[in-house]
Amino acid sequence: MNHFGIITTLVALSFTTALCDDLDPRSLFVEGYAGRVSYQAGTEATLHVSTSANTYSIEIARLGATREVVLTKTGVRGALHPVPENASSHGCGWPASFTFAVPPEWTSGFYHVVLRASDSGGPYVQRNRRTAEGECFFIVRPAQAGQRTKILLQLASNTYNAYNTWGGFSLYSFNARAKVQGHRVSFLRPPSSQFANWEQPFVAWAESNGYVLDYCANSDLEFHHELLSHYKLILSVGHDEYWSATMRDHLEDFIGQGGNVAFFSGNTCCWQVRSEDDGQALTSWKQWYNLDPVFATDDHKLLTTLWSHHLVGRPENQLTGVGFLFGGYHRSHGQFMDGKASYTVHRPDHWIFEGTNLKAGDEFGGKDTIVGYECDGCEFTMENGLPVPTGRDGTPKNFTMLATCPARWHPDDAFWYERFDHKREGVSVVGVYTRGGTVFTCGSTDWAHGLRGKDPAVERITRNVLDRLSK
What we know:
Layout: H1 3-23, E1 30-34, E2 38-40, E3 44-51, E4 55-63, E5 67-77, H2 87-90, E6 98-101, E7 109-119, E8 130-141, E9 151-155, H3 157-163, E10 184-186, H4 199-208, E11 214-217, H5 220-223, E12 233-239, E13 242-244, H6 245-256, E14 260-266, E15 271-276, E16 281-283, H7 317-320, E17 323-330, E18 343-345, E19 363-364, E20 373-377, E21 380-383, E22 386-389, E23 400-407, H8 411-414, E24 426-435, E25 437-441, H9 447-452, H10 456-469
């Protein structure tokens, strides 16, 4: 082939490639994350967005009793950013694409960010209107802690991050690339959230019924623990599974100084994590604790595995009154799939049952499956026909068991824990103890579903707890 032929061929190939590009327009997407999990009202916030669109829009709304849009922005300049190989563990590193001041008057709460992009498709084919939508969130702490209310709800943002597979990996293998379990997860990537399943029904019910709440992230118990002294009652709702030692230390100090806590949650404080990068990432080796660098040392108190593991020696029962080792699953993971999903009352004269008209042996909450998914319990014996904790598992001796429902671990979850009794049948427990302040637990992730379903007993018990412990 002569030079003219070579040039002609190259031009033809170039033209064909360009034409193919025109006939095959790239996909349209938009996704992003907030620069921090939580911001104090009155401070500056950032959003970090990657999109194939030239421009995109932003809508920010507070999710409470209603969805209240507080900010909209159109025509934001878009840019496409690469995804690092280690984005799951160390974040995306995208620059801030939108910076704004969180107004001091914004009400503390969970803020949902919707990112939208659109175009008209390709120049020659697929010339149809295309739209794409991404979402993320951030939490707004109050400008003045405790000024509006004495109730602080700390959202289970660590658990959200633990399950998030964006970039390929989470702290689980079942939902990760190649079924490989990660041991570090970054907050600096497009997030996922469990807010809608558990905390939102609680928040919607509480705010609709006149309760004023302030909000913070899990990590704020570690990095902004000065918040706690401004409140009478701290709440945990839903699936609050991952806690650092510093978070726990600060909350236990709060209780010891007379502060009250209500755990409307289950599987609570089950796994220990270590915060890294100033709270922008979590590390937990979980079942593979022998790979944690702490394992090779003489001090295992910060080993990132079960809080109830004998090497850590600090079962969550010491904080919550109950724990996952003596609880387990109900209507999930193949355990008690035909269970009643209701609690049986044992001590109806206790103040939490005031106004419910419940009697010993009565059941409540089954209609809305308030005992479901993951549950916490304690080791107990029967005395005069009533359950009494043994205290051997870390549950305080003055813990009062008020209602129970059967629960059980799945054997596959327990094979690696050499001191676990695979044949044990546990219980989900509603109970209370006092150590300086008062601690209430509902023992189940799904309590808030009873509020969504307007179960009268669940509503009255929740009122009793909020009214008594927030004063």
